[in-house]
Specification:
heterodimer, A: 113 residues, mainly beta, globular, B: 0% helix
Chain lengths: 113, 114
């Protein structure tokens, strides 16, 4: 079936180090979204990428969408303790007249002060 | 304010009882989703609905049922057939139109079955 995978599952970094999570889909995506879930909270939308090869930045966060629209990455420069949480990618898979969003399993980021 | 509301936040039930989780949105979104999240795990899709009076099974629909009688509401019933119902349940909605499908999540319902 259609799957969206993420690696790594967990990442522990020292504050100030960089962090990257990778998202891969078995199916071509119409777009991809990234969400952040703080411990005890609910997922919150960060960004959406639509175009092949698209790169977007939000302060210390850089998001990329692969040329084949099957993979994506999120890179955080100089992590801070406020970056702690689980980062999910979610792919929008078009299927006839319907579409549905499929979430990856997430990457849990811990930042050591 | 527009948003998506889940209630209750915490729910305790005895084993063998059915329980219904509420999800209401006033964002005028066509698509609504139910996810289950277990500790340290990602989101698994239970059911989704693209339009009123229509819904589709997700990856883990067994032991759950839904209805979509109104655009604003998408309640989830956890039946006694669900073998391990204790989990965090998240409802989400999205516009579902074209390429813009940002999902908005409710605060979640933490269900504990004893």
């Amino acid at each position: 079936g259609q799957q969206v995978m993420q690696i790594p599952q967990y990442q522990h970094v020292q504050e100030g180090e960089d962090f990257t999570t990778y998202c891969n889909s078995s199916t071509t995506l119409s777009n991809i979204q990234w969400y952040k879930q703080r411990p005890g909270g609910h997922p919150v939308f960060l960004i959406q990428l639509v175009k092949s090869g698209e790169v977007k930045k939000q302060k210390r966060l850089t998001f990329q969408f692969g040329e084949a629209k099957k993979n994506s990455s999120l890179h955080i420069t100089a992590t801070q303790t406020t970056d702690v949480g689980t980062y999910f990618c979610a792919g929008d898979i078009l299927k006839t007249s319907y579409d549905k969003v499929i979430f990856g399993p997430g990457t849990s980021l811990s930042v050591i002060p | 304010d527009g948003g998506i509301t889940q209630s209750p936040k915490y729910l305790f039930r005895k084993e063998g009882q059915n329980v219904t989780l509420s999800c209401e949105q006033n964002l005028n979104h066509d698509a609504m989703y139910w996810y289950r999240q277990d500790p340290g795990q990602g989101l698994r899709l239970i059911y989704y609905s693209q339009i009123v009076n229509d819904f589709q099974k997700g990856d883990i629909a067994e032991g759950y049922s839904v209805s979509r009688e109104k655009k604003e509401s998408f309640p989830l019933t956890v039946t006694s057939a669900q073998k391990n119902p204790t989990a965090f349940y998240l409802c989400a909605s999205s516009d579902g139109q074209g390429a813009y499908t940002e999902a908005f999540f409710g605060q979640g319902t933490r269900l504990t079955v004893v």
